[in-house]
Amino acid sequence: MSCITIFSGDFCHGSSVVKEVLDRTGYKLITDNTLINEACKLSGMNPAKIESVFSAKTSIFNKFTHEKEHATAYLRLAMANMLSEHKQLFSGYMGHLVPRDISHILNVCLVADIDYRLKVANEEQGLETKEAAKMINQLDSERARWVHSLHNEEDPWSPSLYDMVIPMNKTTVKEAAVLIVEYLSKDILKPTESCQRRVADFLLSAQVEVSLAREGHSVQVMANQGNILLTINKHVLMLSRLKEELQAITTQIPGVQSVECRIGKGFHKSDIYRKFDFDIPSKVLLVDDEREFVHTLSERLALRDMGSAVAEDGESALKLIAEDQPEVIVLDLKMPGIDGIEVLRRVKASHPEVEVIVLTGHGSEADRKTCMDLGAMAYMHKPVDIDKLSRILEEANRKVHEAKQQ
């Protein structure tokens, strides 16, 4: 039997249509939360980390950690495992993970014009027009970012992505459900041997992607009856060495018969392919109001393959800490507004697992004692010895990751 994916805009009666289709078909409902839980079991990752994949915002540390790509790989694997069963309705973002060439899956999109959605928002939640418009714009932006990341398509409602696009401002919930159920009976949606091979290809490509992600790699993977194509969408230094490493990892996976590596369309980009090294700090936040110093320090750490982001005042630092969860902070003391000691106090109160290294040019012995009492890992003076700082950062990184294993 066929499966169904339903991707809906907010205030388009998506949940009502899903319920009506389930009542008419007896299908099993799979939600994004179901998929997230399965991906957590496979990966051991925090559910919030995996759920953040669907968010429009990407962490400032992602270019170093590949966390978003890592989580997406496990979501694909969880989705590929689920496709072994029939008569399932996948509701939410997850439907876009399924390759379009798996033909026994009916891909449905529910949309409506903005006036209709504003009206529904007012009726269902009592939202005023301005408030509803802001919410819809934000939620649509998240959907657009998700769809673009997977399909390079700007319009999340593009008919090219679906088998059916149903305008809910012109269609009742019952009518939409009837359309979907009627379409299910079409011969084109009946599972075939070819279709089952594509499901197997999807599963193998997901297994390869996860295996590569575990080793710190982020590449595009396609499978065709055991033949794997790896596409690297970045500039690469020492390409032959990278190909050898990717091939060595991939050929160990059961079912893989051959491996081909190529440079993809991202080759023209200026960024350099960087394998994520789990032993090197890559979620370091540098906090200092001396702009030239802090950006130079970030560049010097990058030369040592240590990924860092920069905040130039205490308020910005606290916002980044709340949103992007750095693992190590290098913190100046004397800053306008919220000073370093107050940042340290708040960080240790809200995120005690974060290691903080104080780096100051003006601190006193009393400041040093206060910082250490508040939980700072180290207290250093400017000008900084970059080798010494690097060693302390590596030690902080080890402490953070050892704590995660406990």
Summarize the structure.
The modification 4-aspartylphosphate is found at residue 332. The protein has 406 residues and is of the alpha/beta class.
What does this structure look like?
The protein is of the alpha/beta class. It folds into 3 domains: 3-189, P-loop containing nucleotide triphosphate hydrolases (Rossmann fold); 215-268, no CATH class; 284-405, 3-Layer(aba) Sandwich (Rossmann fold), CATH 3.40.50.2300. The chain is 48% helix and 16% strand. It has helices at 14-25, 32-43, 47-51, 62-65, 67-82, 114-125, 129-151, 173-184, 193-214, 239-250, 291-302, 314-324, 340-350, 365-374, 386-405; strands spanning 3-8, 28-31, 88-91, 105-111, 164-167, 220-224, 227-232, 258-263, 284-287, 308-311, 328-331, 355-360, 378-381. The protein has a 5-stranded parallel beta sheet. Strand 7 (227-232), helix 10 (239-250) and strand 8 form a beta-alpha-beta unit. The two termini are 44 Å apart.
CATH topology of the largest domain: Rossmann fold
Biggest sheet, spatial arrangement of strands? 2-3-1-4-5
- Number of H/I helices: 15
Structural class: alpha/beta
Radius of gyration based on Cα positions: 25 Å
Percent of residues in helical segments?
40-55%
Instruction: Give unreliable regions as ranges.
Output: none
- End-to-end gap: 44 Å
User: Looking at the structure, what is the overall shape?
Assistant: globular
The figure for the number of domains is 3
> Could you tell me the mean pLDDT?
91
Looking at this structure, what is the CATH superfamily of the largest domain? P-loop containing nucleotide triphosphate hydrolases
Sheet having the most strands:
5 strands, parallel
Q: Strand content of the residues, in percent?
A: 15-25%
DSSP, total strands = 13
The CATH architecture of the largest domain can be named as: 3-Layer(aba) Sandwich
- CATH class of the largest domain, anyone? Alpha Beta
Order of helices and strands: EHEHHHHEEHHEHHEEHEEHEHEHEHEH
Domain Response regulatory: 283-397
InterPro entries: Bact_response_regulator (IPR050595), CheY-like_superfamily (IPR011006), P-loop_NTPase (IPR027417), Sig_transdc_resp-reg_receiver (IPR001789)
Pfam family, one: Cytidylate_kin2
Modified residues (4-aspartylphosphate): 332
